[in-house]
Amino acid sequence: MFNEGDKIDDFCLNGIDEGSNEKVFCFKDLIQDRKNLILYFYPKDNTPGCTTEACDFRDNMNFILKYAAVAGVSPDSIVSHKNFQKKHGLNFPLLSDPEKKILNLFGAYGEKKTYGKTSMGVIRSTFLITPDMILKKAWRNVRAKGHVNAILRYFENPDK
User: Fold this and answer.
1) Taking the model in full, what pTM does it have?
2) For a designed S-S bond to 134, which of 17, 49, 110, 130 qualifies (C-beta 3.0 to 4.6 A apart)?
3) pLDDT computed for residue 160 by the predictor
4) Which domains does the chain carry?
5) Given 12, 26, 50, 55, the catalytic residue
């Protein structure tokens, strides 16, 4: 599992760009204009929490792009991602990790509790990665509602 300050190995996943075009994305493709990358992991397309979080990223993209590019990752298929993106007008890439390789590397897959029940699944998490592939900030096991606002507050005052 990566921790803040760690160097991230390059990775590649299948996904769709903001125009729903299928392609293989490697880290270098996700970094735009040598900005940071917000890589966020979410459990499932078109579920209430994941929709809230994705739409919050979408609605704040003009501000976020001053600091970082954004990409979402879940185990869902490309077809599922295309439907999710189209239904909600999402303006950032969605990557598919059905084997959970990248999810596991970031510690975003594992045991979690939902409504008091323990199960294995995606742990909603977000990572800020520098263009030099250093994990600058990790937000682990977050709630969908209000999470993007926490990221925005961080960008406004990263020393806090």
Assistant:
1) 0.94
2) 130
3) 62
4) 12-156 (3.40.30.10)
5) 50
Local structure of 158: helix, strand or coil:
coil
| Per-residue tokens: 53 | 């979080």
Place of tokens 């189209």: 86
Rounded to whole angstroms, the maximal C-alpha distance in the chain is 43
- Helix, strand or coil, per DSSP, at residue 151: helix
The segments of the chain whose pLDDT lies below 50 read none
- Nearest by Cα to 15 from 87, 102, 88: 102
State residue 25 phi and psi, 5-degree precision.
Answer: -105, 125
Q: What is the DSSP letter of 31?
A: -
50 annotated active-site: yes
